[in-house]
Amino acid sequence: MEVILKLDIPGIGYKYDTVTVKPGYGRNFLIPQGQAILANKSNRKMIDENIRQAAHKAEKMKNDAQELANGLEALTIKIGTKAGENGKIFGAVTSNQVAEIFKTNGFDIDRRRISFKGEIKTVGEYEAKVDLHREVKAAINFSVVAE
User: Fold this and answer.
1) Which of 10, 58, 91, 139 is deepest in the core (most CB within 10 A)?
2) Is 88 helix (H, G, I), strand (E, B) or coil?
3) Any idea where the domains of the chain sit in the sequence?
4) How far apart are the two ends of the chain, measured CA to CA in Å?
């Protein structure tokens, strides 16, 4: 079943993308929740018109996201946590902690846009991926240190 997404859905697609999903997922979840519309001829024409009208706004959003990515990549981040003698930390570093550090540095980033490769459970150097825009992704290096 083909649907047109009305907003960004992680793992599926971005706003105005035409994606193929299982019929039950489309009929029973995406369409009733208002997250998608059926990809028929009239809806495609309507979406094309919306995209054409929003092209200038989208370019500005992309440029703003690129500036934000450049600012984030320039940051030097250190996350202090309690750790044992062998370097293993108590608990794990989460995207919430990274988002809070961004907020203290003046960047308001939603925690759901921050991802890591696996769990962070030891002291060391790591990289976080921040999804700012469909075409703009930032890679932020940070270190986890023992307090």
Assistant:
1) 58
2) strand
3) 2-53, 64-146
4) 52
**In terms of CATH architecture, what is 2-53?**
3-Layer(aba) Sandwich (3.40)
Strands of the sheet containing 36-38, edge to edge, are 18-20, 2-5, 36-38
Please give the single-letter amino acid code of residue 83. Answer: A
State the fold for domain 64-146.
Answer: Ribosomal Protein L9; domain 2 (3.10.430)
Tokens of 24: 């039950």
Q: Which of 75, 78, 85 is nearest to 145 (CA)?
A: 78
User: Which structure tokens are listed for 132?
Assistant: 């700012």
List average pLDDT for each run of 10 residues in the chain, which is 147 residues long.
92 91 95 94 91 83 88 86 87 89 88 88 90 87 88
What pLDDT digit, counting tens, does each position of 68-100 carry? 888 888 888 888 888 888 888 888 888 898 899
Share of the chain above pLDDT 90, in %: 27
Which pTM value belongs to this model? Answer: 0.62
pLDDT at 31: 94
